[in-house]
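User: I'm curious whether this sequence folds into something compact or stays loose and floppy. Could you predict its structure so I can see for myself?
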Amino acid sequence: KSIFSGQRDVVIQTERKKLTIFFSDIKDFTATTERLQPEQITRLLNEYFTEMSAIALKYGGTIDKFVGDAMLIFFGDPETKGEAEDAVACLRMALEMQHRIAELNVKWRNEGVEFPFRVRMGVNTGYCNVGSADRMDYTIIGAEANLAARLQAMAEAGRVVVSYETYALVRGILVAHPLPPITMKGISREVVPYLVEGMLDASGTKMEIVSEHMT
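Assistant: Here's the prediction. I'll summarize afterward.
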């Protein structure tokens, strides 16, 4: 849209921007696929990605890519509402996704799927390279995007783990507690992850994250 309207030039280039990055995957997906027929897996994945994409677009996220059962989404490009608002939108998206996954799991169980999807999510805020220097590929590159994937890998099924950088932007409405610090190749600072328990809505009421036993 930006290219066709003339807002963005059609040139191969890389920009650095501060983004909030979301990464998710389905826990034990390989084991789940072994219990289901390929046609069932295709149908469930299509429904899952369709539902998650609709929620991402509702909150203004840019869907970067699907890799197998994983999703990479970012906030802050091509449009931004400001660092804090981008981070809030990303976290509200993540919570709504977990609630929707819980609803889908109930539906799928009623259809005879014994082991539906349990999704873990990671969120980080930092400077990323947007684009590619050698081909026109609109994607994000860099250690900060890798950190979102690392945080996701730390999360338990049905949970969201965020970096301190994201937590600091949304701390007024996020209910979370710190986990032990981690170090990561490519990032000089020590990273303090936060496990999300819930968020406050506009009225100040806490919205719980859906835990695994509720799905």
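Summary: The CA atoms of residues 124 and 193 lie 9 Å apart. The two ends are 38 Å apart (CA to CA).
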